Amino acid sequence: MPRYRAALLLATLLLSGCTADDRSPAGNAASAGTTTSAAAESATTTPATAAPFPYTVSRRGGFAGVDDRAQVSADGTAVVTTGNGSAAAKALPVATMDELRGLLTSPGFTSPATVASAPTCADGFEYEMVTPAAALTVHDCGDSHGPTVDRLIAISADLFKA
Prior knowledge:
The protein has helices at 3-14, 94-104, 107-110, 147-159, and strands at residues 27-28, 34-35, 55-61, 66-72, 77-81, 87-91, 125-130, 134-140. It is of the alpha+beta class. The protein is globular and about 35 Å long.
């Protein structure tokens, strides 16, 4: 990951509005086809009680070259910003929030692991998923990244639907 993106990610984490109670050491996760950010690689463990919110996901690429971002707060509100700069607020269902909370604190997302090189694909999306405790970048080329990451991609993709 280029240094400017790592610095931007670190700045985003620091400025994301976390309170002292929300902060926990950074961790990382990986499965085939995933990479972790420099901020996530800086620690070796993540407590199971790590704060999963705010959850920020960026989606870049695709045939049209999108650059979208969504930030989900603990109260279930999501602010989705598209590449043209327009922002829209959404309220996520309680069941989705409960599922996100479980996925973002599960070992499939937070545990340190050996990182395989991330494949890139024509017209695929790159998802960058960030919580106060972990960060993960995934190239969605149709291959499985494991049940946790695959489900996070599906929920994240739904955030960007109109």
